[in-house]
Amino acid sequence: MLRKIVVGVDGSETATHALRMACDLAQKYQSDLHVVHAPQPRTVAFALGAMAAYHAATAMPSAAEVKEASDKVLASAKAVADESGQTIITYLKSGDPADALIACAKDCGADLIVTGRRGLGTLGALVQGSTTQRVNHLAECACLSVI
Q1: Pairing between strand 142-146 and 112-116?
Q2: Which of 21, 39, 30, 11 is nearest to 113 (CA)?
Q3: Whole-angstrom distance, CA of residue 140 vs CA of residue 133
Q4: How far apart (Å, rounded) are the C-alpha atoms in residues 117 and 130?
Q5: What sign for the dihedral angle of Cα 145, 31, 11, 123?
Q6: Distances (CA, A) of 84 to 26, 75, 78, 129, 144
Q7: pLDDT range class, residue 41, cuts 50, 70, 90
Q8: Is 95 left (phi over 0), alpha (psi -120 to 50) or beta?
Q9: Which of 21, 51, 86, 141 would disulfide-bridge 81, Cβ 3.0–4.6 Å?
Q10: Nearest 5 degrees, angle CA 100-CA 132-CA 87?
Q11: CA 30/CA 24 separation, integer angstroms
Q12: 110 contacts 104 by C-beta, under 8 angstroms
């Protein structure tokens, strides 16, 4: 039985697919759904461009821009959950996204962590390993990677 499900969102299409899958599972198992977003300044420019007509970033985004993008990512997640008839608990965390997901799962006693297989990670993630790979390696509960 899946009592609590944690899902990571970053504004990417695969994260939206992961959230939809998590909503489907939450509906089936009547689970609590916890949505975690841990913005990374180097990917916020992309999220702003994809969501707010922000054309190109030549410098790191300001704290206000990070907050604005984060609010939009979480609002989008809420809209997806609403479409599925699910209520979500949202978390805006700082730091490494994998660490944030694992900590949230541990704190709430999650039975499952759902992530998109490929999000907004940087090229370096291809060499060092993605958030999903790290979560799958370190989590103390089941993990589901969604395409």
Answers
A1: parallel
A2: 21
A3: 14
A4: 8
A5: negative
A6: 10, 14, 10, 31, 19
A7: confident
A8: left
A9: 86
A10: 60
A11: 10
A12: yes
Residues 6+ apart with CB under 8 A from 31: 2, 3, 4, 5, 25, 111
Residue with tokens 């998590």: 22
Per-residue model confidence (pLDDT) at position 42: 72
- On the question of pLDDT at 54 being above 80, the answer is no
Q: Give me the amino acid identity at 27.
A: Q
The per-residue pLDDT for range 92-115, each reduced to its tens digit, is 999 999 999 999 999 999 999 999
- Please give the single-letter amino acid code of residue 7: V
The structure tokens listed for 90 are 């949202």
The whole model's pTM is what?
0.85
Task: Name all domains of the chain by residue range, CATH numbers in brackets.
Answer: 19-116+137-146 (3.40.50.620)
- In 8-122, which ranges are continuous DSSP H helix? 13-29, 41-52, 63-83, 97-108
Token pair for 73: 């990512």
Q: How far apart are CA 49 and CA 42, in angstroms?
A: 12
d(C-alpha 144, C-alpha 132), whole Å:
9
